[in-house]
Amino acid sequence: MSTSDASTPATADRSLRGLLLLLATIAGVSVANIYYNQPLLDDFRQSFPNSGSWVGVVPAVTQLGYAAGMLLLAPLGDRFDRRRLILLQIAGMCVALVLASAAPTLSVLIIASLAIGVLATIAQQAVPFAAELAPASERGHAVGTVMSGLLLGILLARTAAGIVGEYFGWRAVFGASVVALLVLAVVIIMRLPKSKPTSTLPYGKLLVSMWHLVVEHRALREASLTGAAMFAAFSIFWSVLALLLAGAPFHLGPQAAGLFGIVGAAGAMAAPLAGKFSDRRGPRSIITVSIVLVAISFVVFALSAKSIAGLVIGVIILDIGVQAAQISNQSRIYALKPEARSRVNTVYMVAYFIGGAIGSGVGAVVWPIFGWIGVSIAGVVFAGLAAWNHLRLPANEKNLT
């Protein structure tokens, strides 16, 4: 099956939309697996009382596994059929989820969680696949559509896990994910076309070539650093929000922080629209606007230390800004070297998550010393770093390659 096989433009458009929605579902369902364990930590502690002090390792190794999977597995999309890679990773994920669901000890759960993180990088095959399927004039919209699915998976995973875990136990969360992945695999076999490998490099050289891409493409370096700074701002807010809500005057539990994730779905809904604007206006101008929105969001946060309404408004602005920049950055980098989209995506996403880790780390240091105002100032500083990196280079895209 191919989008070019359709007999009319209208049929081709419907076919492409269907494929993009499928890829969005693949991205969301797969990436959700690295967040399911976060609201279940107390349940883990009760199930494994002799190892209760180690339950925090579970989400940590899951995130570590995801970073490793991005580096080691995501580049394979240039070397092999992405459809086959997605199905193989789903099969491996189901095995890891069954192991997690049946884990007799915390150690087994930790091992299974590491494997889940590595294999959840299915999402990093779906996004460049969308860029491959869509014509160049619609690439931003295509990437935005798939990213909206990925973002919804991230935002709603904790809510879903909390509900299932409360009524059926934490083991049922992993079991339900197996069922969802198996159903998804059937749909993939029926609907998703094969992709065409664009590289014959051996695995080792494939990994080394990512460094060559960094050296060769100035736009990739710029987009990666800008994206890292934006995600650092995003992460510093979300890493400290629960602490703010737990204190005066709110005195709210972790469930309230989870509900803010639903508010953040506004950013996910805006992703396809941001992609369309990127296609029409050019990605660099959208990134500039996005950086301004992120800076404004932290000004709103600084003024909302005692206002739920203010925090909600700030979250919406923050998520729209970060996600619009993400879509526009990815639209740019996928045009740099079409035959290396998976590797280009890997470089960008590794930098992106490093930025997120830095943001979380800064939040952990700033919060106990300077409080919420310090966190807000740090967020503005990260937006400023993104602006400096983005605006110091020539606006002409050709000069950045």
UniProtKB/TrEMBL annotation:
Q: Which Gene3D superfamilies match?
A: MFS general substrate transporter like domains
Q: Which InterPro entries match?
A: MFS, MFS_dom, MFS_trans_sf
Residues spanning the membrane: 18-36, 56-73, 85-103, 109-131, 143-164, 170-190, 228-250, 256-274, 286-302, 308-325, 346-363, 369-388
Q: Which terms are listed as keywords in the entry? A: Membrane, Transmembrane, Transmembrane helix
In terms of domain of life, where is this protein from?
A: Bacteria
Pfam assignment, any one: MFS_1
Under what name is this protein listed?
Transporter
Q: Which residues form the Major facilitator superfamily (MFS) profile domain?
A: 16-401
**UniProt organism field:** Paraburkholderia domus
Q: Which GO terms describe its molecular function?
A: transmembrane transporter activity
